[in-house]
Structure formats: structure tokens, C-alpha cells
Amino acid sequence: MLEIQGLSKKYGKHLAVDQVNLSVPDGKIGILLGPNGAGKSTIIKSIAGLLRYQGMIKIQGNPAKTLEAKKQFAYVPEIPAMFDALTVREHIEYMRRAYDSTITDGEVEELLKRFELDDKQEKLGNELSKGMMQKVSICCALCVHPKVILLDEPMVGLDPKAIKELKEVILELKEQNVTVLISTHMLEMVEDIWDIMFVMEKSHIIGAYRKEDVGNKDLDDLFFELTGGEKE
Amino acid sequence: MKALMYLTKRSFVNSIKKAVKKPVTLIALIFGVAYGIFLFAMLAGLAVGVRFNSSSGLVIIMTLWAIYITLSNFMMYSSRKGVIFRPAHTHFVFTAPINPKLILLHGAWMNYVFSVIVWIILAVAGLTVFQVEPWKVGLFFLAGCVLETVLEVSVMVTIYANDRLPEKLMKGICRGIKILLIAITIVIVLYFRKEGISMESARGFIDWKGLQIFPVVGWSIAVYRLILLGPDMLNIVCSILYMLTVFFMAGLAVKMDCGGGYYEDAAKFADDYADMKKRKKNGEMVMGIEKKKKKFRKISETIQASGAKAIFYRQLLEYKKEKYFIFSKISVFCLFFGVFFAYAMRKNAIESGYPQMFLLGMAAYISLVMTGYLGKWENELKTPYLFMIPDSAFKKLWYSTLIEHIKALVDGSLLCIPMGFFWKIQPVYVILCILIYTALQANRMYTKVIAQCLVGDVLGKTGQNLVRACIQMTVLGMGAIVAVLIGIFVNMNLIFPILLIYSIMVTVAVGLLASLRFGSMEQLT
Fold it and tell me: Which DSSP helix (H) or strand (E) runs through B72?
């Protein structure tokens, strides 16, 4: 479970996130939507422990900055950054060691195969295209068997097959009772997988919906109802 | 920790493997080591030459080291910029379940390696150049390498890990150290101006007792004095204070809780550092790690030119929006050198009877030195829009670089006019010199494009610069030899016009060749 209470973050005088509360229960897929500059990335980075903030963030009941919380948490950033001198396989190996992951070699092989990286295992970080880096980043996050996973614009740069695969992986994680939070602009990509949506605007969460409460209503209709924009 | 060790080990092994496959890296490494040895030998010779080769000489060096390097390190740590992390650390390490203090200690491994190398060099210098007894060198190495590193690491951990220290206090410490360094420099300059530069005056300054009483930095100087010069009451007391400080700081660092609050600053620094490396790789002259966000003026103007001419007017509009228009750091640099050399070389230039030749030499030298400067034109080649403009390649080259020629003309004026004025050179020679400087700058730009085409990415930016310098020196060198010969055997007054006409002709020819690069984007990729 992911819980955020009274999260605020200031960059100098600019209040990027103001008193945000949200929670995503176990086995649910939360999506964080909002226009550019709304504060989504700040929330994501705060959860990942990369920012100083005010308020409380808990992962599986543990404060997000503790090692217990981090052990159960995985993060896929919007812009992946690889170690130049580490191969794809070595990135995975590093994650295995850092998280004391129980993933087996066979499972790693399977994972790399799913994202078409099995033949690129010996490629160095600085030899990868942006799309490939994104795939490695996703595989690294999955290989730690997280209880909570955070994906920031995970579909950007991925080819259609990888997007399809990623959606399947996210649904599998849900079945395994993993908490998923996805921040994205691409509404159509998360249309059929979300359980809870949070819409942000100007540093605040301006609305939240549960799928079971809105019936068959379109995701973009709900989004534009809240943000006041028009569906194209 | 095992994950971090794995990370370092694999990165090191892979980098070595890559370097072995790429001979350029190995050649650069060999050259680097050879240059280091040459520099060491040269400095050692200099130390012997000025009778600096004794324990006192080493104490003087260590005093300056303690003041500048130690304080600079403290300043870097107080702004949380002393440890280099990469964007990949933000992605994979800061988010991992690893103690933030361990990450910090591991992140600074380059600092330890650097520190050990410096202390080995100092120990070798102590034995060979400064003639210090081996047991003293051993103690000196231990005190420096161990105590100073422990203190540095403790300060680093205490400052980075402490989330409770207010940001304003940290900025205050940083500013305070900066002011202190400037103040010390002024005191040193004023002292040596008054006393003159000699071993005796240097010793007089170093022996000043107040220096050792100065907390931490002064105390570390006392340790070096105790080991190298022998005990006295002051250096014994100050050395004890230094040891106590090291133990106290180490204890504080061990006890301090760290929740990873520094990740925010470290991640920002990692991005800035990666950006700086990228700019450096592109051949840009980088002055600092942090790139300040540029502010632009509001200009309500539209570009009305068409074809390749639009490139020039777009660049002009961009420059109009900039704070100092076409004036850059290079302009300041040219003006500074113009005024500096005008004053410093005035006597020699005027007494020679040919001050115009001095001016020409300075203009040529500065033009060759400015290799790291990138104008807007180089970015043109990186965008596909340039290649899509329906105009000839030569026109695109001309209009992409036209503003750079104007800038070179302005910078050349800033460089040559002060020297021309103070050295009482006829205006016609000054004008010719400015034009030659402009032509040389244009030549450099176009030769760079040719070097890029010839070498591509095989030898990297350094290789490209080397090839450019070779081409430029060969082509221009021939002209210079011809001009000098005509000057000696026919008429000295002909040197300037011959050089100008020759460099313009060569530049046009090189420009025509370089324009091929503006025809298609494919050539470099």
C-alpha cells in the first residue's frame, strides 16, 4: 500500500506540491494525471526518496525513506539513466544484489525475453537507445519483486509490442497484490487498466475517482470534466 | 555495500576493456603520464633553481596546500558539490535500499584515489627533491594521507548527511570560506609586494605564528611543521588540537543519522555535471559545472529575410535577446589581454622598433588559443532545419557563420586597439591586424568543419582539434613564411597586406571545401 498525507514541496519560493493526500491500496493500479507543471513529477520523486519534502509518505506502512520501505519499492523514472560502463545484464545483477532479490537466473532470462532484451544482455549502458534504456529500467524495477511500483511515463519511447507487454506485466503485478502508481499523459494507454485515478492541477489534487464508481465513463471525459479542457 | 562494490568493480573492468579496444584512450593515457612526469621533473628543477629544495620548501608548499586545497574542499562540501554522482546514481542507487551514508562514502572514491596519488607524489618529492629523511617522509605521508583524508571524509559526511543544518547556514559557510580565501590571497599578494619574492620572504610569511593558530587549517600546518622542521611548543599544541579535531569529526560522522536528504542536491549536481561533460565533449570551453539559466530580453521583431539569409537574421535576433548582445566572455578575455599586454609588453614592443610585429604575433597567438569557443553556428549543423532550407550549401555556410565574423571583428578590435594605442602603432597596421585576426578566426571555424568531416567520431573531439590545428598551422604557416621572407628581403611594410590577402584567400578556399558539409546531414552521423 502507498499512502501520502499532507505532502508539500517547495522549490525556492515556488510551491510545487501543496498538501497532497492520496493512497493506493494493495493490488490496485493508481494513475496520476495532470497537465505539464501540475506537480506529478515532484510527487513521484518525493515517493522515490529523491527530494526533501514536508508531510508523510508510507510504503507498506513504513516511512518511504527507510530501508524497509525501499526494499519493497521499485521505481521507473521518466528519463532512464544507465551506467555507461555496465552491461544490461550487469544492471540487473546490481539490482539483485542491492535489493537482495530472490529472482532466479531463469526468471531474469524470461523477463529479458519478454522485453526483447535477451540478445542485448552484453550491450553497455551507453550503447543503448532511449527505448532500450526504458526497457532495461522496467526490467530492473521488476527483478526486485516489489510490493509497490512507481512508473513515471513508462510508455514513452517504447515500441507497440513493449507497450502491450508492459500493460500485461502491470496487470500481472495487480494479480500478485502489488500496488502500482503510474504517472502519465497518455490517457489511452491506461484506459483499460486503471483502478483509481488522481487528477492534479496547479500543485493540488483536484479530483479522484474509483473505477467502480464511474461505470463505463471514458477516462478522458473524466479528466476533462475536472481540468475544464475539451476532448479532441 | 556488496552492490556498490559490484558496481565499481564491473564499471572499472568494463572501462579498462573498452580502453584497450580504443587505442586513442591508451595513447592519451600514456601522454598524460609522460606529461605528468615531465611536469614533475620541471617543477623539481625549478625548486632546485630557486633553492627551494629543503624541508622548509616542502613546508611552504604544504602551507599553501592546506590553505587553498583544504579550504576549497570544505567549500565544495558545504555547497554539497564535492562528491561526483551521475544521473544513473539518481536512478539506481539513491532509490535502492542502501544506507545513504554508505552511498556517500562510496560516491567519493575518486576523491580518495586522487588524495592517495597526490600524497604519493608529495612523498616522492619529499625524498628526492626536498631531501627529507625517509622516516620523516613516512610520518608525513601517514599524517597527510590518513589524517587529512579522515578529516575530509568526516567533514563531507557531516555536511552532506546533516539534514538539520539550514540551507542558509550552509550557504553562509560557503560564502565565508570564499571571502576568507580571497582575503588570504590579498594578504599574500600585499605581503610579497612589500617584501619581494624570495625564499627569505616566503619563509618569513610561513613562519608567522598566527598562521598555525588558525583553527583546523592552521593546526594541520602545525603537524607538517612538527614532522618536517622539528618540535616547538606551538606546533606541538596545535598538532594535538588537530588530532583531537580529526577524532571528534570522525566520531561525529559515525554517529550522525542520515536519511538521504542530500539526494536532492546530489541529483541536481549529477545532472549539471553530466551536462557539463556533454558540453565539454562537444568541444565547448566550460568554465563551471553549473549552467545558469539564461534570461532573455523581449524583442518585438520578425525575421523578414528568406532562404539562407534567414539563418543570419535568426541568429541576430537571438543575440539581440541576449543580455550583452554579441559580447561574450571571449570579448572580455580579448579586452583583458589587450590591455594587459599593452601595459606589460609596452617597453619591449616600442624599443624593438617594430611594435606592429608584436601586435601581429599577439593577435595570431590569441586566435590560435581560442580553440574551445563555440558560437551559434556550430549548433546549426546539429539541426535538420539547416539542411532543409532551399538554398546553396555555400550560402548556408556563409550566413550561418556571418555573425561569427562580425563577432571576431569586434573581439579583434578589443584586443588590438589597446595595444595599438599604447604601443603607438600606425592605425593602418592596427586595422590590418584586426582584419587578419578576423580572417584567422574564420579560417579556424572552416578548418574545424573540414576536420570534422575528415576524422568524424573516430578520434573524438580531441582528435578533430588536433587535425584542425595541423591543417591550419600548415596552411597558414606557409603564408607566414612567405610573408616574412618578402618582409626581410623586399619590404617590411608588405608583411601585413600579404598576410591579410593570403589568409583571406586560404579562408575562402577552406570555406568552399567546408560548405560541402552544409549540403547533407548524413556526413557526420
Answer: helix B71-78
Residues A217 and A121 in one domain: no
Cβ–Cβ of B91/A73 closer than 8 Å? no
Residue of B nearest to A86 (CA): B11
Q: Which residues of chain A have a CB within 8 Å of the CB of B281?
A: none
Which pLDDT tens digit goes with each residue over B74-84?
777 777 777 88
- Look at B88 and A140 and tell me if their CB atoms are within 8 Å: no
| Domain span including residue A57 | 1-72+146-232
Question: Domain-by-domain residue ranges, chain B?
Answer: 1-49, 54-266, 309-524
> A83 — contact with chain B (CB < 8 Å)?
yes
What confidence tens digit (pLDDT) does each residue in B4-29 have? 999 989 988 998 888 777 777 777 77
Spatial strand order in the sheet of A62-63: A14-24, A2-11, A54-59, A62-63
Q: Are residues A139 and A151 in the same domain?
A: no
B168: closest chain A residue by CA: A12
Residues A163 and A66 in one domain: yes
Number of compact structural domains in chain A: 2
Facing residue for A124 by CB, picked from B14, B86, B96:
B14
- The CATH number given to whatever domain includes residue A32 is 3.40.50.300
User: Which 3-state string (H, E, C) describes A40-72?
Assistant: HHHHHHHHCCCCCCEEEEEECCEECCCHHHHHC
Q: Is the pTM of this model over 0.80?
A: no
